[in-house]
Amino acid sequence: MSSHADVVVISAGIIGASVAWHLSEKKVDVLVLDKSDPCSGTSGACDGMVFLQSKKPGVHLAMAMAGRHRFDNLARELDAEIELRCRGGIMAVTSAAELAAVTRFIQEQNRAGLGVSLLDARQARDLEPCLSTDIFAATFCPLDAQVNPIYLTLAFLDAARRHGAKVLSRTPVMDIRITPRGVYAIDTPRSIIETRTIVNAAGVHAPEIGKMVGLEIPITPRRGQILVTGPMPPLLSRCLISAGYVAAKYDPDIAGTGSMGISIEQTARGNFLLGTTREFAGFDTTASLTAAKKILSRTQAVIPGLANARLIRTFAGLRPFTPDGLPILGHVSSRPGFIMAAGHEGDGIALSPVTGQIIAELITGTTPGISLTPFHLERFFRGTVS
Ligand SMILES: Cc1cc2nc3c(=O)[nH]c(=O)nc-3n(C[C@H](O)[C@H](O)[C@H](O)COP(=O)(O)OP(=O)(O)OC[C@H]3O[C@@H](n4cnc5c(N)ncnc54)[C@H](O)[C@@H]3O)c2cc1C
Questions:
Q1: Which residue's CA is the nearest one to ligand 1's atom 5?
Q2: Could you tell me which of 252, 273, 272, 359 has the C-alpha nearest to residue 47?
Q3: % helix / strand / coil in the chain, to the nearest 5?
Q4: Residue 68, φ and ψ in degrees, nearest 5
Q5: Could you read off the pLDDT of 29-79 as tens digits, one per residue?
């Protein structure tokens, strides 16, 4: 059996879901294929921090800032509860050495217009009284926010469906061929789907999809482990990361040691999500006791009240890591109609609305609001991709 769609989006993760919604809003005939259930990949195994102050100044921060305002009206646009809380975010600084590095980092962010302030220990505790008296300093960014990533992914998909998109779960893409008529033929166990435009939003599996059309895509899984506590009374109003978190994210030497900074988030229902590691461990999503002990002791050092927490589970997700920390977005020049939207590492939730918007603009012939050149797949290869 064969069928046709104007655009096929490979993935019902948060990126594919956002692309599908933005396209369907523009009345594009779109079909979403996922090998599993919606939100069963990384988007269902992560935190929900919409953090700007964790982004490197430059194109990454510019993209995050360009998309931040999209969150403000998203619940209304999607007609769904997404547990968005816009109370700003905190980065905890635990030593004088960290403070020097953080000061430089936020100076650059402020030059880019982000508006991050440096707080002394007392000011930090005025903002979040649960913080330890051992905190050295902190930074505060009022634009940082928090969302429920699972609710948001499912809301994108529901809204896309209402606009006419079709979503096929448990439908793996097994192969992609080019027909004699020059269109893509996508093989799935259910049918062959013909299309002129494919969006590869398969997260850590994007390289497998790339191989089907002869492309090498440098995305590697980078595991992050999270501990979940039972619901607790309100303790932390804003998401929190440590300065070490930003270092582990961007410094390959630190990352290579399996080092971790911390991330702490209290959800709308009161559960805490405590993280996290950054490990290259292939596709293994096992959570370890060693990592759990480290996460627990480090997060308790910053919020002593967590000593009363009851752990209910642990999980691990796979961040789609790229060598330069930027997602891979846009057309691939050697494969007309094959569009990348993957490799968001630890930022896919925060960047999901802007990514969906940009890709939909590209497909419908509108010039995206930000230049996609720094995000093209070709940046990883000398000359053109063959
Ligand atoms: C521990 C942890 C904490 C994080 N915290 C944050 C945070 O606070 N803020 C933030 O912004 N980001 C965070 N992230 C990053 C964020 O979760 C990811 O960037 C984002 O979820 C990636 O979404 P995706 O849609 O690209 O991939 P996925 O959600 O993995 O979706 C890919 C989909 O493709 C499907 N697929 C794969 N192969 C095929 C195939 N052959 N055929 C059909 N379908 C296929 C899969 O089934 C999957 O559903 C975190 C990540 C981790 C691991």
A1: 47
A2: 273
A3: 35, 25, 40
A4: -60, -45
A5: 999 999 999 999 999 999 999 999 999 899 999 999 999 999 999 999 999
Give the right CATH number for 2-45+150-218+324-380 from 3.90.550.10, 3.90.1150.10, 3.50.50.60, 2.60.40.1930.
3.50.50.60
pLDDT per position as a tens digit, 212-251: 999 999 999 999 999 999 999 999 999 999 988 777 766 6
Residue 373 phi, psi (nearest 5): -55, -45
Residue with CA closest to ligand 1 atom 48: 41
Q: Which atom of ligand 1 is nearest to the CA of 44?
A: 29
What are the domain boundaries of the chain? 2-45+150-218+324-380, 89-142+220-321
Which atom of ligand 1 is found nearest the CA of 343? 26
In the DSSP assignment, the letter for residue 6 is S
Give the binding-site residues of ligand 1, using a 6 Å CB cut-off. Answer: 10-16, 33-36, 40-43, 45-49, 172-173, 201-203, 205, 208-209, 224, 226, 275-276, 317-320, 342, 344-350
Determine the distance separating the centroid of ligand 1 and the alpha carbon of 12, expressed in angstroms. Answer: 9
Q: Which CATH superfamily is domain 89-142+220-321 in?
A: D-Amino Acid Oxidase, subunit A, domain 2 (3.30.9.10)
